[in-house]
Write the structure tokens for this entry.
Amino acid sequence: MSKSVYNRHGFTLILLSLCLMVIVFMGITLSTVLNGNYVKRVVSSESNVSLIKNYTNQKLGSIVDSYAAINDLEATQLSTDQVRTIIDSSVDELYDGDNNLTIGSVILSTIGDNLKKAAKTNGLNIDSEIDQTVSSNKGIMDQIVNNDIGPIDQSLQDIKQVQRIVKVIIGVASVLFVLLAIRLRRKTKSNMMFFHHMGTVGIITAILLAIMLVLIYYPIASYITSNVEYNVRDVLYNILNGIFTSYISIVFMVFILSIIDWGSTGKYKYN
């Protein structure tokens, strides 16, 4: 193949790269950011559970002070397993697009159960008083939840619709990619030349994705720094970094495989 004929496919390669970029980026997004089960795994990591546990227990400290009959701070402390259970139910609510979050009620109910166990251990039968005390803190807890999680809940209200749109975009981009790839194969009339071009497409796609990730990551990190409370900020940073690590690993894999493909078929460039 002459150099002029080789270069003639440049526009097709660019279109293929853009389609592949959309497919890869949207595919990763659908399986990470838009996937509640994936988010659960990230949020439930040891470091995040520890941060959430410490933050929540700090906020709950006032409840034991308001109920002096059980002078036991540990009664209002959430255990690691309880935090994981609350995380699972919270993520489910957020990704179901539920307007009425029950996270605060779940936390208070758990604390109420802990207080009742502590009361019985101390020979006290004061379940009704504990229920009243916990209920009186519902407004405060709802406010804490709305302040910390409200913005996230608002952004996920249309999550189901977003998931459907992303799937449609992936489908359209995939069809275009296949049609363009078939066209390129017919034009090149050579399997090895075709694979060389696809290596070029993969390299361009990886570079475009890397640029896109940089442009997306830093504004999000800056927003978290400026608008989120310190303790919650650390959790969101961990989640953000965990998700972007998934993006980066796949982009890196695409780049390496494309380099191998491009290099191994390079000798057929002008044949």
